[in-house]
Amino acid sequence: MTQRVVVTGMGVMTSLGRELDTFWGNLLEGKSGVSLVESMDVSDYPTKIAASIKDFNPEDYLDRKEARKMDRFVQFAVVTSQAALKDAGISIGENADPERVGVYVGSGIGGLQTWEEQHTILMEKGPKRVSPFFIPMMIANMASGQISMLTGAKGPNSTAVTACATGTHSIGDSFRLIRDGEADVMICGGAEATIVPMGMAGFCALRAMSTRNDEPEKASRPFDKDRDGFVMGEGSGILVLESLEHAMKRGARIYAEVVGYGMSADAHHMTDPAPGGEGAARCMKHALRSAGMTPEDIGYINAHGTSTGAGDKAETAAVKTVFGDYAYKVPVSSTKSMTGHLLGAAGGVEAVIIALTLKNGMIPPTINLDNPDEDCDLDYVPNTPRKAEVKAAMSNSFGFGGHNATIILKKYEA
């Protein structure tokens, strides 16, 4: 018998807030989390802006000795997972069997900060001075590893590394594990921390990021004709998924139900989407089929919407392919206009957003949409949030390498 899967806990770490209420309030106010980068010298970089998390001290949340053994992305993941478990009211070993609680938290890039720091030590001081913690600190699976060690979760444990689709793949795979009876609870999502010299330099070299340095808060402008690239963000988004049976037994509060998951490959290009968003369209179709839904059942789409010319057009075309005439009636918004693009963490944060949309009946806007691109002609909820009774919502994530992932959540009904 397959299990129904529900969302019972959530946590975020973003430039717009570290608590759910603060984060949600800032989204509905249309605030931008983008600012000038202060954590490094960006004077020689074409892009000098990012959606950075400022004043984060891991020792406010973690034991100092443990925190020093973690890359920044792992710190984000661990802290956010602890917040999500607390939000869910789960204490592993008390109201959840440790062997039935799993972790599936991914990162698109992993410990880039640690890699940089230790490479500098290698070059300046030699191999004997490289930290013995270098490898276990920077490998991408260590977020899942550390979360399990610190929480006692002994169930399924894995990591997706699918670029910007990472967080959504992590949630979708966790949904399947619970649905198929492999776990009762999954801690899942994504974390990323790449606002470091190599990360900034690499994306600048791709000419993928906005250079609107004089107006940081207006730089991320998905679907707008005047967009000039994405804005990098950092942080994490973690969900606690639970079988409905397990959640009911302990009287859990339920945010939403996970009902659909699709994945596909473009098989086209390292960084560019397939023509017409063909791979993205197949991914959305798979998610709808998984959920047993028609396009008309979807009341909101949280778009991948990165604020790049090719990506925004391809996703718009894909939505039209899948939704037909209804594409012009379904609200679509890109919250990356406010959070920036959190790469491997984006899908986790955006899953939190669609769960809150279902719970609160409010659709967050796409800010900075002042001059729509002629090829981007859908209802992108420009600049102002919208009150709407959404019964089901979709979240899209598409990554370098042609990795596509889509999840569908709906309002929980007994």
From TrEMBL:
The keyword Transferase applies. Its EC number is 2.3.1.179. Keywords: Acyltransferase, Transferase. This is Beta-ketoacyl-ACP synthase II. It comes from Paenibacillus mesotrionivorans.
